[in-house]
Amino acid sequence: MPIATPEQYAEMLDTAKAKGFAFPAFNVSSSQTLNAVLQGLTEAGSDGIIQVTTGGADYFAGHTVKARATGALAFARFAHEVAKNYPITVALHTDHCPKPALADFVFPLIEASEAEVKAGRNPIFQSHMWDGSAVPLTENLEIAKEILPRMKAINAILEVEIGVVGGEEDGVQHEGSNDALYTTLDDAIATVEALGFGDQGRYMAALTFGNVHGVYAPGNVKLRPALLKEIQDGLQAKYGTAAKPLDLVFHGGSGSTDAEIAEAVANGVVKMNIDTDTQYAYTRAVAGYMFQNYDGVLKVDGSVGNKKQYDPRAWGKVAETAMAVRVGESTRQLGSAAQSISA
What we know:
two-stranded antiparallel ribbon, zinc ion binding, TIM Barrel, 49% helix, alpha/beta
């Protein structure tokens, strides 16, 4: 199917919230990892979100140049074309844009979508993330408030991070043991006072409840998914809204238990980012292939090797399929498997 229209994306998120599941959002950095996501989602019968970071976009543009907006547009154009061949619906998103990268990442992409919409077409990306976790909350929300009307005008969704996700992702690093790892109700109230409940433009909120980017074993991070319910209930009580008024995003979920993920989803998470686990699945398959076929991929002792084994397509297919399996696991864990609106 073609990439989701703004209306389809909104339907995806609304359906997830109403039915109590979440969509996995996969970070990709190449055509191969993008294809792996499409393969895995199709095999699971799940819609999903495909996203790119500043580092991923830099890599799409060519690792010897710094042209992340170009790389992001190349990613999007490739995705728009190849997604037509798959029977599921995906949305495109840009992940973790800190303040120094706004000018050469998100802003040029919004401008490109503004031109598309002016020409009567859909936005190139269906959502963008502004990551203001490294600046004071007041400044974070001031910048979000400036971006949100532009997003509304192109019928796209803004993602904001309220609090701090520990660990490191693409150069954005935070310490993993301080109070900022837990968003407060007051933080959420400040967010609503600045951004509303969708009337100024739709947004998703990555509230933090002990999340940490990267690799960690279960039990080593003190997740408090119950905090999400406390915040949702507090907002409902203060403003008289329906239950779970915020659309929430779960960052830094690698190593989380099934129970923690299920509780977070039950408390309003509609999008969960997946990166570390799929990176490992892809690279582990490449490593396994190389070890098993070392005498074919290397010209050992002056031999000629085996072209069919060192052809990048040979090990690339193995890697894509292994990553696709991990993609499918995520859809089942989050409940989006067999929920495609395209079915």
